[in-house]
């Protein structure tokens, strides 16, 4: 029997659509993080201070893209530059207290949204879904050669 991967493709397309439909509506609060800041801050929190080169390797993005994103985060006080003790003049990005506060707030909002969507799900169903999502993500990371640190 062929695997019904076309069903997964379709549902992940819809999941992306749902995120796009809700994100602009929620951005009326000036305290919201944009998607790139949320993901970068999450990665720096898990891995510790990171350089542009390390971020480029972790995300598979061009350093110029990361320079734009980190510059915006610097302007908003979400990260600060610190010396890299292992690389001479190189600098790393570290989350500020403001960045921590806003990341925690954004994560709480996201979890609250997922809680609303899954209000009628049993704890077992939520755990099973989380396990399948983790497996799906870790397989993507394995194929890309870019594992994501997890708590």
Structure description:
This protein is 66% helix and 7% strand. With 151 residues, it is mostly helical. The protein has a single domain (28-144), classed as Winged helix-like DNA-binding domain superfamily/Winged helix DNA-binding domain (Arc Repressor Mutant, subunit A), CATH 1.10.10. The protein has a two-stranded antiparallel ribbon with strand order 1-2. A hairpin with a 7-residue loop joins strand 1 (79-83) and strand 2. Helix 2 (35-47) crosses helix 5. It is globular, with a radius of gyration of 18 Å. The termini are far apart. Residues 24-28 have low confidence and may be disordered. Residues 1-138 form the HTH marR-type domain. This is MarR family winged helix-turn-helix transcriptional regulator. It holds the Pfam family MarR.
- Largest sheet descriptor: 2 strands, antiparallel
Distance between the termini: 37 Å
Architecture per CATH nomenclature, i.e. the level-2 architecture:
Orthogonal Bundle
Give me the CATH superfamily. Answer: Winged helix-like DNA-binding domain superfamily/Winged helix DNA-binding domain
The CATH topology, please?
Answer: Arc Repressor Mutant, subunit A
The structural domain count equals 1
Number of helices: 6
Determine the fraction of residues in helical runs and give it as a percent range: 55-70%
Instruction: Enumerate the spans where pLDDT stays under 50 for 5 or more consecutive residues.
Output: 24-28
InterPro entries: HTH-type_Bedaq_tolerance, HTH_MarR-typ, WH-like_DNA-bd_sf, WH_DNA-bd_sf
Protein name: MarR family winged helix-turn-helix transcriptional regulator
């Amino acid at each position: 029997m062929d695997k019904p991967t076309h069903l997964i493709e379709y549902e992940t397309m819809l999941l992306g659509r749902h995120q796009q439909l809700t994100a602009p509506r929620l951005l009326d609060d000036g305290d919201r993080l944009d998607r790139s800041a949320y993901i970068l801050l999450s990665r720096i929190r898990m891995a510790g201070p990171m350089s542009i080169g390390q971020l480029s390797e972790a995300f598979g993005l061009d350093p110029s893209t990361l320079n734009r994103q980190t510059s915006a985060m610097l302007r908003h006080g979400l990260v600060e530059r610190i010396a890299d003790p292992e690389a001479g003049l190189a600098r790393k990005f570290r989350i500020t207290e403001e960045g921590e506060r806003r990341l925690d707030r954004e994560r709480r909002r996201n979890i609250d949204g997922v809680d609303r969507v899954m209000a009628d799900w049993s704890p077992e169903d939520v755990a099973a879904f989380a396990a399948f999502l983790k497996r799906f993500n870790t397989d993507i990371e394995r194929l890309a050669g870019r594992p994501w640190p997890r708590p």
